[in-house]
Every structure is written in C-alpha cells, then in structure tokens.
Amino acid sequence: MHQEFLMGNEAIAMGAMAAGVNLVAGYPGTPSTEVLETVAKGRSRDTYVEWSINEKVAMEVGAGAAYCGARVMVTMKQVGLNVAADPLMSLEYIGVKGGMVVLVADDPGPISSQTEQDTRHFSRFSKLPCFDPSTVQEAYDMIQDAFEFSEKYGTPVFFRSTTRVSHGYADITVKDKNEYKHIAPEGFVKDTKRWVIFPKLSYQAHINIEARNKELSKVFSSYEKNLLLNKDSREYPNRGIATGGFSYSYSIEALKTLGQVPLLKVSTPHPFPEELAVKFLTGLDEVLCLEELDPVIERELIYICGKYRLPVKIYGKLTGNVPPAGENTLDSVYKCIANFLGVEQEAEAALNEQDLAEMPELPVRPPVLCAGCPHRAAFYAVKVAMKGKKTIFCGDIGCYTMGNAMPLDMVDTCLCMGAGLGIAQGVNHIEPDTSCFAFVGDSTFFAASITGVINAVYNQANMTLIVLDNSTTAMTGHQPHPGTGQTMMGEVVAKISIEGILKGIGLEFVKTVNPLDHKAAVRTVQEAAAQPGVKAIIFKSPCIALVKSDKSLQVNQSRCINCHKCIKEIGCPALIIRDNQVMIDDSLCTGCGLCSQICPIEAIGIGGESDE
C-alpha cells in the first residue's frame, strides 16, 4: 500500500484496476470522463478499453464481456443513463456472470448538464443495487466492493458518484500493483435458459430479484461503509441527521463547530439498509436529511417510520428545511443543520469570530464559443444565408449549444443528443413554410443522429442537416470517435466518412465546405436551402484546441471606422473595445480570419495589414 494524491475519478479508475477489471466501455460526459481515460493510461495489457459510439452500445459491449465472466465497468454521466436504459433494464433480469459496475456520475447544480437527475431513483426503478461514495478514499475502496457484490449476486450494480466526489482531490491510500487482482474470464458458456430473455423466464427472474434485494437490505445494514455515528450523543437530545454521498463530508465538517448528534451515513441507498435505519431512528424525535439531489433517504426514513410505527418527525427537502434543487455546499449544509438544531444565532456568531479573509467576488463569465472556433463561422454563414427568411435552428448538446449566445442567437431549441433532427422534422410537418435546420457535431452525429436522418429520408421531410465537424469530441476533452481514425486503445483505424454515411442513407445533396471560407459557406447554405427534401452540409474545420495558428490578426487603426460590425455580428471574445477603438487581443486570436472577411472596409489583417 502507498499514498497518492488523486482526483476522485482517478481513484475510481485505480480501484477498478485493483479489482481486476477486464473491460471498460463508456461514452464521454462531464463529470465522468476521466474514469475511462485513467484506465486507458494505466491499464494492464489484458484490459480492453473503448469509447463506445454511445452509452447504449457501451452497456451492450459490457454485457457481452460480463456474460463471459469478465469484470466490466461501463461509464457515463447521468443523462447518458437514459440512453443506456433499454439494455440495462433487460440486463437486470438476465443477470451477469462476471462483476459488472455501471459508473454514473451525477451533476448536481447542474454544472455541465441539461438535467439534475438523481441516479438513486434509477437504481430503485431498475431494482439494481447502488453504491454512493462520500469521499475520494471511499470511492477507491467502494468500487472494489461493488465488483465483489456484483459477482456474488450475479447482477449489475450502480456506482453513483457526484461532481464533488468525481472532481475532488485527496491524498489516499491505494494498493501497490502487485496487490491487484487478476481475473481470468471463463468465457461464454451457451445456455439459452440463462442468456435468452423470455417472458416466462423474466417472471421468475423478477421473483428472484425481489428476494435478492430483501436479502441485500439486511446485508447492507452491516456493510462497513454504512455508518451509525454518535448514537449515544446527548448534546442535542433526541435529534439526528441522516445523510449520504458528499453531503456526509459537509455534515461532518459542520458538526465539528455545531456539536455532535446521532448521524446515519447511507452508502447504499438501494436496497436501503433498513435494519440499520431502525436502530438509528429508535429513541429519536426529529431527524434532518441532507442529500443530493432528491429526497431519497428522506422518503425511505418516512416509510420506515410508518412501517415500524416510530414517532419520529423527518425533515428535509419535502418539508422545506433543505433546498429542493442544486448542489449542497458546506455553507448551505451548515445553515440547514444550525437551523435544525436551533442554534442559528450562536452559529452566526461563531462564524463572525473566525478570521476569514475577505473573498473578492468572482467575475461573471458567461460561456461562449472559443476565439477562432469554426462553429462560430458555421453559425454565422447560415445566419447570413437565411436572413429575412422564416427559419428555425434546432441545436444539440455540445460546444455548439453556445451558438445560442448573442449576437449569434442561432439555437432555437436544444433538448438532448440527436433530438434536433426530430424536432426540425416535427416543426416542418406542422409549418411547411418554415426552413428547418438541425445542427449536430461530428461525435454527436455518430452517437445519436444517424437514425434521425434515416427517419427524415424515409418520411420525406424537408430540412437541412448541418454537421459541425471539428474532428473531435471537444466539449468533454477531445476524445476520439469513429470519424477521427483512432481508438482509445491508440490504434489507428480507417476513418468512417460522415459524407459516405449520408449518401448511403439516400441523401443526394451532401456538400463539405470550410466554414472559415465565409463566401463559399454562405453560398453552400443558400444552395442547400433551395433544394427540396433532406439536405446536408458538413462544415469541416478542426477545433482550435487541436490546431492553433501562431498568426494573430490586428486592426489597422488608420482605416477602421469603428462601425463595430465585427463585434456586433460574430461576438468573438478576441475582439475588444479599448480606448473607444476596436482591437484584437492577440493572446486569444487564432488567426481564423472570419472577422477580416466581414469587415466592410477591410481594416483587419495579419500584423495590422489589410487588403489595399
């Protein structure tokens, strides 16, 4: 054993490797991405890793490996679980032979997601066991326990992290590599009664699942990561706190100042450790529940109080004692506990006595497309081409969602990955006079958009697909995808052509153009919009994080008339006003040239030069 300073996601990955994981598959999504990337960097030669085309495929790849007796981890963020739900729900009934852990990183806030989903609900809905770590060290230890439980009970299990666990850092104790387990999978053994799902088999499987979860509730009541602390504390008579996940860490920190009360830490929210909860509740009058995101622990305790006729009042999100949405913080947890214990004034005084440095307010920094991002040029070309026409611009999940910001204002809808295609078709069927555009990225095209294009062609929609191809999965950290020609294992493979796929589906108008060639881009959009049926434009230009120019542009001040068109039209962060003059911040400028192409008097060029 030795000490390492690790991010939570790195700790989860190292714990999985220590448990002998044989295969890891997933789809990138903050805050989960670093788990798979860490395994890819530190894996043994017998561990296979892939970025799958989406979460559904990742789940199915993992299932196949687990059928062989391999230890498997499938990684995703909370919205990715929606995509993986179909195979997962059936897999619960089929079961697995090897240990299979489904790592889902929830995003309270949300910080980088479109929803605040709580995977603990999905655990109960799917009847799968769930592990919910509260610290980086616990994440490392608990992922190894999760593999053991999964293998013992022949079921996939959830490992639910949250942003502060996934992205927090800590100095933790980890195993040396010679202590890692080495799992030799038995291989797939044919057995249609086990691996082929039939209604009759599912009925019996359901009975077995309910019995298993009842047993697990008892087992989890003695699981060492579920804790009952300070049971005999009398500092605040007959009051207790129930918590789990990172809220436990906040609660422990707050109680160092506020005093000790009986505390229940729930690390396995499903099946709920009922016997331990009864022991905690007995003798208490009031309990405050602190958790992210939803009142899962709170509802379980209310149910248990009713079942065992325990006269305990349960407080939390349902009663308005804890905020119903968003991330918990140390401050918010401190205030909730202080109010619950009736020591608000004393707590406020204690905080005021501390010598706290005056923290400056953080500057407001709205999310924007990077300076030089080719997506800005693509959006602007479509905007110019369709000016004055009735249009709808259906966006998608990725960097290009930020095309909604002014002055571009080019994202009218954004629902989930791949949905823009369907929304554009729906609008067109109701409003045939509307020119409908759907924007997707290259990674999103492979992950979630191909079926939408097929549907459009089959049902004779009238729409234009815009593929923003920057040759990477930019928003989540530049992971490879089928169009990049490289796998997560580092293998160089043939690039899958987006243009070839679209033509194979049946599109007759498919053109590829560089969005940074503004005139050609506008002309191509106008040509596409004039065509009937389903058309596609692939705006192809690499992400500026991958290919950076060392040539920045400058404004020729002797020619500039301060019309501000460059700033008002495209909103590039490298374009600034200083001393009432338009200038270019050369620390941000990538030399993409878009601003020079739209300047009406050609006052922008390299090194201040411009066309004469």
Describe this structure in words.
Helix content is about 40%, strand content about 15%. It is α/β, with parallel strands linked by helices and about 600 residues long. It is globular. Helix 1 packs parallel to helix 6 (about 135-155). The chain folds into 4 domains: about 1-220, Rossmann fold (3-Layer(aba) Sandwich), CATH 3.40.50.970; about 225-350, Rossmann fold, CATH 3.40.50.920; about 375-540, Thiamin diphosphate (ThDP)-binding fold, Pyr/PP domains (Rossmann fold), CATH 3.40.50; about 555-605, Alpha-Beta Plaits. The model is unreliable at about 610 (pLDDT under 50).
Radius of gyration: 28 Å
Structural class by secondary-structure content: alpha/beta
The largest β sheet comes out as: 6 strands, parallel
How widely separated are the two ends? 69 Å
Number of helices: 21
Q: Going by CATH, what is the homologous superfamily of the largest domain?
A: Thiamin diphosphate (ThDP)-binding fold, Pyr/PP domains
CATH class membership of the largest domain: Alpha Beta
The percentage of residues in β strands lies in: 15-25%
Shape: globular
Give a summary of the structure in a few sentences.
Helix content is 39%, strand content 17%. A six-stranded parallel beta sheet has the order 3-2-4-5-7-6, sandwiched between helices.
Task: Provide the fold topology.
Layout lengths: L1 E6 H11 L4 E4 L6 H10 L5 E4 L3 H13 L4 E6 H17 L5 E7 L12 H8 L3 E2 L4 H18 L3 E6 H4 L2 E6 L17 H4 L3 H23 L5 E3 L9 E5 L2 H13 L4 E3 L8 H8 L4 E5 L5 H13 L4 E3 L14 H12 L2 H10 L20 H12 L5 E4 L24 H12 L4 E7 H17 L4 E7 L28 H8 L3 E5 L4 H13 L3 E7 L12 E3 L9 H6 L4 E4 L2 E4 L9 H5 L5 E3 L6
Parallel strand pairs: 2-3, 2-4, 4-5, 5-7, 6-7, 10-11, 10-12, 12-13, 14-15, 15-16, 16-18, 17-18
Antiparallel strand pairs: 1-8, 9-11, 19-22, 20-21
Helix pairs in contact: 1-2, 1-6, 3-4, 9-11, 10-13, 11-12, 15-19, 16-17, 17-18
